[in-house]
Hints:
This protein has helices at residues 4-20, 23-29, 31-36, 52-68, 82-91, 107-117, 131-140, 173-183, 200-205, 240-252, 267-276, 301-305, 327-331, 346-354, 375-403, and strands at residues 44-49, 75-79, 97-101, 119-125, 146-151, 165-170, 192-193, 228-235, 256-261, 281-283, 291-294, 308-313, 335-338, 359-360. Helix 6 (107-117) packs across helix 7. It is of the alpha/beta class.
Amino acid sequence: xxxxxxxxxxxxxxxxxxxxxxxxxxxxxxxxxxxxxxxxxxxxxxxxxxxxxxxxxxxxxxxxxxxxxxxxxxxxxxxxxxxxxxxxxxxxxxxxxxxxxxxxxxxxxxxxxxxxxxxxxxxxxxxxxxxxxxxxxxxxxxxxxxxxxxxxxxxxxxxxxxxxxxxxxxxxxxxxxxxxxxxxxxxxxxxxxxxxxxxxxxxxxxxxxxxxxxxxxxxxxxxxxxxxxxxxxxxxxxxxxxxxxxxxxxxxxxxxxxxxxxxxxxxxxxxxxxxxxxxxxxxxxxxxxxxxxxxxxxxxxxxxxxxxxxxxxxxxxxxxxxxxxxxxxxxxxxxxxxxxxxxxxxxxxxxxxxxxxxxxxxxxxxxxxxxxxxxxxxxxxxxxxxxxxxxxxxxxxxxxxxxxxxxxxx
Length: 410
């Protein structure tokens, strides 16, 4: 029997079908594919994330699970974004890990997806608490078969049934408290504070948090030539005004800069704006003093961080956006700054700023002080995170091993 949420989800499906008749909209958002598939033939362990950061984390997690769970089933990673799907498919290490566009959260689409993909369990990266995803897994399993990893929680659609969540590892104590305030009656296993799982490869590798084995007074990592003075990463075009003011300072200092727009479709807007200001532009991997090196593809930030002295993370210069992944540059030992806004990560940002790990600028006028953090502070702080991450991952593997058809972990 349909409840109010199911009725709303059905109405959304009807509206989506109408929009899908517009070829431009269907091509951009893959609406028909979300409603009808095709989806690969299961059964699968289903991992789902929204954007690139979450999906990169889930891809690493998939590799670890195949190492640590005996006879691990095939893994399917789904994403909401078409451009992320392209990255995932290019990055797949083995045929036993697949990727596809996420099903729309409508009763019909979820029924078709469940019939074809046959999900055994669902792992949600950060949040993504779609009501139909949870209700579908509840119908498919008599035991709680949904896990939240690297969880962030602020709010969700009223009326969601949390009872199918059997494991929750949240990023902060505040995230955990907010989740349990709405899900306290659902008996979610033993919810824990497990940190940000984007750091999991570092934690499992048992390596230093940075490459800075012997930091110099300048804080540069030993053995790597730092050819980029500042890497502006995940910048939205709506942040152009702040970006231009920061670029102007670096240009006066004849510094080398790299720009990676958050959205690839905004690359040409940035090019036009830079041309209007007569700012020289080259194409990554070329780097030039007094010029911007433009990045026009996903998945290469690690190689840029490796040669960067400082980084400025986007999504933080507009109150209407959420700050993007600042952990990746910190892992690389790069002195990292964000703007005045930290939507979605306020608790983490406050802690990192307090510990002298992350620099938060009050605005573009603070940009000259972007390199005040000490890379040794970064290493010391992340070292404290390792134990928390390792413990939460171990508990997660135990949860899955008990749930999956072949429960013996290696």
